Amino acid sequence: MTLALELVHLTKQFGEKAAVDDLSLSLEAGTFLGLLGRNGAGKSTTLKMVTGLLKPTSGSIRVLGLELDADPIAVKRQIGVMPEDMALLEYLSGPQYLRFVGRMYGLDEVTIDARREELFGKLDLSPALGTLVAEYSFGMKKKIALCAALIHGPRILFLDEPFEGIDAVTSRTIKDILLTLQQRGVTLILTTHILDVVERLCPLIAILDEGRLKGYGTLDEIRGRANGESLESLFVELVGGAQTGELSWL
């Protein structure tokens, strides 16, 4: 068994609050994991730690057999990251930004331009010549962030809310791209609040609540430990806290 990701007793404290609390998890290469949780459950904090953007308070992280703390550059060369806030260089044009990202990964300009053209075509991304990323719509920014995560051919792909603001046609294309990557042995970790997406794409599911792992396994395995049938009902049952839809003035 080849492990793509190993988290051992991973914890992140912000003051007295544990955003991630003693999280242990291991993923085989080629896994497609849906990471779920309410707002503030620790999903984005977990992704920031495993991609080297945030230092854990305690615990260890191994990516593709490498200790993240010991060799962060070697790890980052092999992963693709689409963070929730996207963190784009907005005063470059889209092609300029992807050329910058590609160079950071050691790609030559011919390869960068060929891959950029293919990505733009697949994702229906066709900004006017010279348009700055700052002028892109929200959906276009999401698309360029995905292009940047894919352009170097990562072995692990981390995606934080990749379908937010994306039209239905392009969403279908992105889903096809992700499933093709998984078939080729790429490991994918996806966070989203769109439970239908996880149900359709992710064979493996992890549910976080208050920084702790509340459920982990296939959808059928989680069903075996809860009473719900749909992923939504399972999720609500495991994390609790759902309120009635009544308002006092309506």
Q: How is this structure best described in words?
A:
The chain is about 35% helix and about 25% strand. The chain is an alpha/beta fold. It folds into two domains: about 1-80 and about 155-215, Rossmann fold (3-Layer(aba) Sandwich); about 90-150, no CATH class. It has nine helices and ten strands. It is globular and about 55 Å long. Helix 3 packs across helix 4. A hairpin with a 2-residue loop joins strand 9 and strand 10 (about 210-215). The model has no long low-confidence stretch (mean pLDDT about 90). The strands form two sheets. A six-stranded mixed sheet has the order 6-7-8-3-9-10, sandwiched between helices. It has a four-stranded antiparallel sheet with strand order 2-1-4-5.
Q: Keywords for this structure?
A:
single chain, alpha/beta, Rossmann fold, 6-stranded mixed sheet, 4-stranded antiparallel sheet, 9 helices, 10 strands, globular
Strand content: 25-35%
The secondary-structure class comes to alpha/beta
CATH topology name of the largest domain, in short, is Rossmann fold
Compressed to H and E, one letter per element, the order equals EEEHEEHEHHHEHEHEEHH
Task: Give me a quick take on this structure.
This protein is α/β, with parallel strands linked by helices and 250 residues long.
